[in-house]
Amino acid sequence: xxxxxxxxxxxxxxxxxxxxxxxxxxxxxxxxxxxxxxxxxxxxxxxxxxxxxxxxxxxxxxxxxxxxxxxxxxxxxxxxxxxxxxxxxxxxxxxxxxxxxxxxxxxxxxxxxxxxxxxxxxxxxxxxxxxxxxxxxxxxxxxxxxxxxxxxxxxxxxxxxxxxxxxxxxxxxxxxxxxxxxxxxxxxxxx
Length: 191
Description:
This protein is α+β, with helices and mostly antiparallel strands. Helix content is 25%, strand content 38%. The protein is built from three helices and nine strands. Strands 5-6-7-9-8 form a five-stranded mixed beta barrel. Strands 1-2-3-4 form a four-stranded mixed sheet, with helices on one face. Helix 1 runs parallel beside helix 2 (84-107).
């Protein structure tokens, strides 16, 4: 690595054991790719509940040729993240998967542009900000509100036809770059 990895604690006391664990994870990433030029890890506790456990979040920024890999693991419902080492492990697992994808793209093993798919909105949860697209072959693909323009997310209802690009997410396939096929918005409300 061209620069020394930085491990920061956001509004937390510095913990040398946690810093060492994070540096061990960084060393594992460096074994996968010697082309990482920088790394910054931030350990925080954004959700501090008095009666419940204190959940940790970990943000990892890797600087690599051709871009940056950012992982921001912040799951307020995942009580396993009351353990900072579990939060570190999960975040670095996600960073490892993204780094593997990046290395494959650099080697030309992965097509940079996936084919666009078509489907219909099968389920949508507007307050939670996500939904599922049913493909013609009956699969359900997760999508997040940020995969659509704000206008498209507001008008998407059950049955609305969409075009999307499928990619592998942290928890399986997900839809990216979702676009409503205008003129086909289904009537009715969100579920």
